[in-house]
Every structure is written in structure tokens, then in C-alpha cells.
Design brief:
Length: 689
């Protein structure tokens, strides 16, 4: 597959023995394209149908199974049409209620029919009741199952019973081969794969049910290890493919870089110097750098990126920086222009808000090579923009861009692949970095520039809003400035906007002596720019804003941040927003206003942000609360999501899988390929671009 293309999944097969085209289409939605995929389609959870309890023993809180005879069944219309039946055993009677039902279910609940019901009971007006239990007709004395019942991931039109039958047939006809060398299995104490897979599909009655459900069973350990091994193999292969591509070696005389450093009013931290050295070494190579520069809010990533971009210019190549929002992109543009204009290096600004004439002129200067640097939003990757000598592409807040957007920027470089530097203010926990970023080299800015003051975080109930208003009044009277961040309204961006407008009007009325500005995503670029400039120039006391100020805004005089309904924000967002203050020498405070009805997750998030200012610690807690897929934006990043392994609890397996992946690719490449193909054949689009 060419390095700069993203493969697409193959079209569903017409079917295979026992599976027709229609069923094959449904199975394809589950990524099942043949008997081997069925064998590897493992249960989500299990239900215990090996035991029946008496109706009188039913308790709420857990699904249980009962067996009895239907004594009554009728369709009732009380507000809505529903099927209500009575089932009786020797110990008592149970009401069965189906709010949506089919003729087949009505037939199952014919009076006199013996049924087994599996579901969670609750106490209704007329005693025990089950709503929408699973119903199975049985004969008197029919034996109970001897194994736990697997519940599989499925899709519309594919019942669990049908899926179980298909998987059972595939297990009998398609035996998996053990591919891991026995010496490796013994060393890592892993079950043979065929045995592990069969046990997970058909757990015997003596199997440890709790260990199966909690994914602690040795069979699950084997599956989790193999999944992590495949992910590591995939990412190491992507890494090798990248190193096989050519990129322009960027070596310079350090004239521009030295001039920039000499003109800065600050010295680089040790961490910045270390990252710069690593980046320069990569840029000098003839294969493309793919480095992640991660550092906490305010750790100084932009100057490191500027030094890298100057290295490209010194070598006669162009560099481009792409950011996810216009406010952040413009902050980068203004900062880079201020640093580089004195050196005679012009920076082009490419954004959707430019007039057609401005945009065409900027594109022409980049096309001709008159301008060597470009900064912009995703407008940078739109067709007319040409960077014929693109040597370095910098992507800020890289997790906000999808694979195709990052690829599109890379392809601006023409035949040679540009070097790529990705920046993130969301620190990546170690196990996550090993698992999701194994094909990236990582530089970490783990110290803040001197002069930054720690930010004090306070949790304040919404009921104490008047005290918060007083705090804003006092801060502004002392010559300081404040941000007031409006709550997220998940349902709609329009409601977000209205909330911001309403908040601005209310605060302007409550604080008449202050000049209150408003900035949100729907403002025209010129209005946004003017408001931000007025705030930066201390012409506004208070800035009411939506999360458009989450990244990139740098106003050292702002020392107070109020985040309204903080419980609606994610941890990374709260940490980023809080980082807008504490950028000067004054003591800074972030007040998290919260509502009354807090969910457990919201309570956990607020506790973490209150107790920690270290971005790495916050990131670890965020990973624990959210899970890896959400944390890295993997759903849109192209990274294979882990279905079975849990990075919080399986860190030791990640390390073992990484070490084995490197050894297999080095010493037994065909075996590594066979292991990968078993799990990802035809799904290479999952691999990182």
C-alpha cells in the first residue's frame, strides 16, 4: 500500500458456506468477513442461565432466570399498547410486560406454555414484574445449559441466538492455529490461543464466572496480549514504512536560529533545549521525522516549533503550521511574525476569514517561494494552497485533526514527504504513549519557564455566585483582568451561543463599572480579532467567552478565571482553560462554579482538577475516567482501538507486547505478518497514517 494513501475496508463478500449475501452484509457491519472472523468475535459479557430460581426468590438488582407456566396473557391498551402475561411456578406468580412486541412473542406467551424468562425483576403494584425479559419456550424437565451464555456485540437484524449458532458452527469447522512460539508462551505464562478462544465462547460450568466477566481469566489475558501484540506490530510496521520514505535533510548554518535566540527576552529551559536538539537531529535525516512534542499548558512549545521552522528556512525549504481553530492559529501567526519579522522572515496567514484577494496574494507568494513560512487553520490543506518546497509540517493540538487532514498537509510536499512535528498540550500517560504512539518519537517539555506563578483552584457552588461577582470586581479594581467562560450546552452550538450572549448581558448589568467584552465561535474573524486585541491591551476588564479561548490565548495581565458549570467540561478542557491565567507574575485564581446535581463522573473530574495542577497527573486520571479511545481521539485518528485490553490495568502486557513485537519483526518477520493478518486482514485502514 503506498505510504500516503489510506486503505479502505474491502467490500462485503457475497457470502460463504452457510452464510448468504444478506447475512454476510449484516456480519460485515461487525467486521466479520469469514469463519475466522466469527471465531475471533468474542463475547462482551456473559449471562448465567445454568440456574433457575423460584419466582418467590426473585430480588431486584441482578438478572436472574425463572421457569414457569403462562396462566394469563392479554394485550392491554392503557395509554400505550402492551402485552401483559402472568407466569406461575410452585413458589409464586410473576407479571411479564412487553411494551413493544411481535406476534412471535405473543405466541411464546400462549396460556399453558412452559417458558424460561431471563431478566431483572422489580416490584410492581401487583408484585414481582419483569419488563422485556428474554423468553424461551421449553419442555417440562428440559435440562439447563451447562455453560454461561455469551452475549456478543451485534447489529440490527442479527439476533444473539443466530450469532451464537454461527459462531458455534465456525468453532467446529475452523480450528485456529497457535502462532506464538511455545518458548514465548511459556515465558509469558500464556494459554494456547485455540484453547483460550474456545473457553471464552463456551465457558464450562466450573469456570470462574467473576474472572470471565471482569476480563481477569487467563483466557482473556491471552486475548488481551495478542490484541496488544497486533497493535504494536501494526504501529512498528507503520514506523518502518515511514523510515523507508524519503524526506529532504534539513541542515542549516544556525544563522537565523541564533539571531532569534539572541533577540528573545527569555532563555530556553533545559527541556526546550533538549527537545530542540532531538528535533534538529531528526530533521537532518533523509527520512521523514514524525515527532510528538508534548508539554503542559505554558511550557513553551511554540518557540521550539519556531526554531524547527527556521531550520527548514535555513536549508532552503518551506514550513507550515496548522492549528484547529482560527483564534489559536492567529495567536501562532502573531507570535511568529513578532519573532521572525526582525530577522527578515515573512510569515503568510491562511484562514477562511481572508478576502479572496488577500488569500490569492498569499498563495501566490507561497507558490513562487517568495514566502517560506505559512500559518493557518485547515484552510492550509485546501486545494489552491501550494507549498512546492514543504520541508516541515507542524500540527498543533494534533489530536483534533483526523488522519485525512494530517495526510492532506503532508501531501502538500509533493514527491518528497515533509518532516512532521505534532504538538499537544494534553500530556500522554506512559502506557498510552507506548500503545497509541508507538510509531512516533516523543519529546517532552516537563518544566515551565521561570516566572510563572502557580494557579490556585477553588470549587464554588453556583449558590455563591454573588461572592464570585465580588471577586471579579476586586480583581479588576486592582488593575487585573478576568475571563468568564460560559457553560457547554451539549445539545446545540446555537444554545452555546445564546448562553454566551445572555451571560454577557447579565454580567454587563451586574458589573456596570466594568468594560465587559464577548467572544464566541460565531463572531466574524475581524470582530473576534478586535475583541481579543482590546482585551490584550487592557481596554476590557472582563472577557466573557465560550471555549474558543481554550488554547492559544496569552494575556499575562489576566489573573482570574471563572468557569461556569465546570462539571460540563472534560478534564483536558478544564486544564487548558485554567492555563489561560497564571501567565504573568500576579497570583492567579481559577474558580470552578458547579451546579447542584453532579454525576459521579463530574464529581470525580472536579476532584482531580481541584487537587492537581500537573498536566501529566491530570492526564493519567483522565485516562482512568474516560478510557483510551476517547482520550486520544482515536475514533477519528486512525489508531486501532483496543476492544479487550485496558491500558490502566494491563500496562505490564503493553510492555511485554512491545518487546515481543520488536523481536518478531527483527528475527521472524513472516511470523509477525501471519499474526497481524489473522486479526487485521483487510482492515489496514485502521493503521495509523
Amino acid at each position: 500500500m503506498p505510504a500516503n494513501k489510506v486503505a479502505t475496508a474491502p467490500a462485503p463478500r457475497a457470502g460463504w458456506p452457510g452464510v448468504g449475501p444478506q447475512l454476510a452484509g449484516r456480519l460485515a457491519k461487525l467486521d466479520i468477513r469469514g469463519p475466522q472472523d466469527l471465531v475471533l468475535h468474542l463475547p462482551l459479557r456473559y449471562e448465567d442461565e445454568t440456574v433457575c430460581v423460584g419466582i418467590a426468590e426473585l430480588r431486584g438488582g441482578a438478572p436472574l432466570q425463572v421457569e414457569g407456566v403462562v396462566t394469563d396473557c392479554e394485550v392491554r391498551i392503557r395509554g400505550r399498547r402492551q402485552l401483559v402475561a402472568q407466569v406461575q411456578d410452585a413458589t409464586g406468580s410473576l407479571t411479564v410486560r412487553l411494551l413493544h412486541f411481535y406476534p412471535q412473542q405473543q405466541k411464546q406467551l400462549t396460556v399453558g406454555q412452559r417458558v424460561r424468562l431471563f431478566g431483572e425483576a422489580r416490584t410492581g403494584i401487583f408484585g414481582a414484574e419483569m419488563i422485556h425479559p428474554r423468553i424461551r419456550t421449553v419442555g417440562e424437565g428440559e435440562a439447563l445449559p451447562t455453560a454461561l451464555t455469551p452475549i456478543y456485540p451485534t447489529t440490527a437484524g442479527l439476533a444473539q441466538s443466530a450469532l451464537r449458532k454461527l459462531i458455534g458452527r465456525a468453532l467446529d469447522s475452523h480450528r485456529l492455529e497457535e502462532l506464538l512460539p511455545e518458548a514465548v508462551r511459556r515465558m509469558l505464562r500464556l494459554m494456547p490461543l485455540p484453547e483460550a478462544v474456545r473457553l471464552l465462547h463456551l465457558p464450562p460450568p466450573e469456570a470462574d464466572a467473576a474472572a470471565l466477566v471482569e476480563h481477569r481469566h487467563p483466557a482473556w489475558q491471552r486475548i488481551k496480549f495478542e490484541e496488544l501484540l497486533v497493535q504494536q506490530l501494526s504501529l512498528r510496521k507503520a514506523h518502518a514504512a515511514r523510515r523507508a520514505r524519503t524526506a529532504p535533510p534539513l541542515r542549516g548554518d544556525d544563522g537565523l536560529r541564533s539571531a532569534l535566540l539572541a533577540g528573545l527576552p527569555f532563555a530556553l529551559t533545559g527541556a526546550q533545549q533538549r527537545a530542540d536538539t532531538q528535533i534538529c537531529a531528526d530533521l537532518a535525516e533523509a527520512h521523514p521525522m514524525q515527532r510528538l512534542l508534548q508539554g503542559d499548558v505554558g511550557s513553551g512549545k511554540t518557540i521550539v516549533a519556531a526554531l524547527a521552522m527556521l531550520r527548514a528556512v535555513e536549508a532552503g525549504w518551506q514550513a507550515a503550521l496548522m492549528a484547529p481553530t482560527e483564534i489559536l492559529a492567529e495567536q501562532h501567526y502573531l507570535k511568529l511574525s513578532a519573532w521572525l519579522a526582525p530577522l527578515g522572515v515573512a510569515v503568510e496567514w491562511i484562514a477562511g476569514s481572508l478576502t479572496k484577494k488577500q488569500r490569492e496574494a498569499a498563495i501566490a507568494r507561497l507558490m513562487s517561494g517568495e514566502s517560506m513560512l505559512a500559518v493557518g487553520t485547515h484552510a492550509l490543506i485546501e486545494d489552491p494552497v501550494a507549498l512546492p518546497r514543504l520541508g516541515l509540517a507542524v500540527v498543533d493540538e494534533q489530536h483534533r485533526f483526523g488522519v485525512r487532514q494530517r495526510l492532506a498537509l503532508r501531501e502538500k510536499g509533493g514527491a518528497a514527504s515533509p518532516h512532521m512535528l505534532m504538538m499537544s498540550a494534553t500530556p500522554i500517560p506512559r502506557t498510552l504513549a507506548m500503545s497509541y504512539y508507538a510509531d512516533l518519537d516523543v519529546s517532552v517539555l516537563d518544566e515551565l519557564p521561570p516566572g510563572r506563578t502557580p494557579i490556585l483552584t477553588k470549587l464554588v457552588s453556583d449558590a455563591r455566585r454573588d461572592e464570585v461577582l465580588g471577586r471579579v470586581r476586586d480583581a479588576c479594581a486592582e488593575g487585573r483582568q478576568a475571563y468568564w467562560v460560559c457553560p457547554l450546552v451539549e445539545e446545540s452550538e446555537a444554545l452555546d451561543l445564546q448562553t454566551a450572549i445572555d451571560t454577557h448581558a447579565r454580567l454587563s448589568e451586574q458589573l456596570p463599572e466594568l468594560k465587559v467584552g464577548l467572544v464566541h465561535g460565531r463572531l466574524k474573524a475581524e470582530e473576534k480579532r478586535a475583541t481579543m486585541a482590546a482585551f490584550a491591551a487592557s481596554e476590557l476588564h472582563l472577557l466573557v467567552a465560550t471555549t474558543v479561548i481554550e488554547v492559544g490565548v496569552d494575556v499575562p495581565n489576566a489573573s482570574l478565571m471563572i468557569i461556569e458549570h465546570a462539571e460540563r467540561f472534560g478534564l483536558a478542557q478544564l486544564h487548558q482553560l485554567r492555563g489561560r491565567v497564571g501567565r504573568g507574575t500576579a497570583e492567579s485564581v481559577c474558580i470552578l462554579l458547579f451546579g447542584n446535581a453532579l454525576s459521579e463522573t463530574a464529581r470525580a473530574r472536579l476532584k482531580v482538577i481541584y487537587e492537581h495542577t500537573d498536566g501529566f497527573m491530570i492526564a493519567r486520571e483522565d485516562l482512568r475516567i474516560r478510557g483510551p479511545g476517547e482520550f486520544v481521539g482515536a475514533r477519528q485518528s486512525g489508531v486501532p482501538l483496543l476492544r479487550y485490553a485496558d491500558l490502566e490495568n494491563d500496562g505490564d502486557l503493553v510492555e511485554q507486547a512491545r518487546d515481543l513485537a520488536e523481536a518478531l519483526l527483527r528475527e521472524q518477520a513472516p511470523l509477525a505478518e501471519a499474526i497481524m493478518q489473522r486479526w487485521v486482514a483487510g482492515r489496514e485502514s485502521l493503521l495509523r497514517a
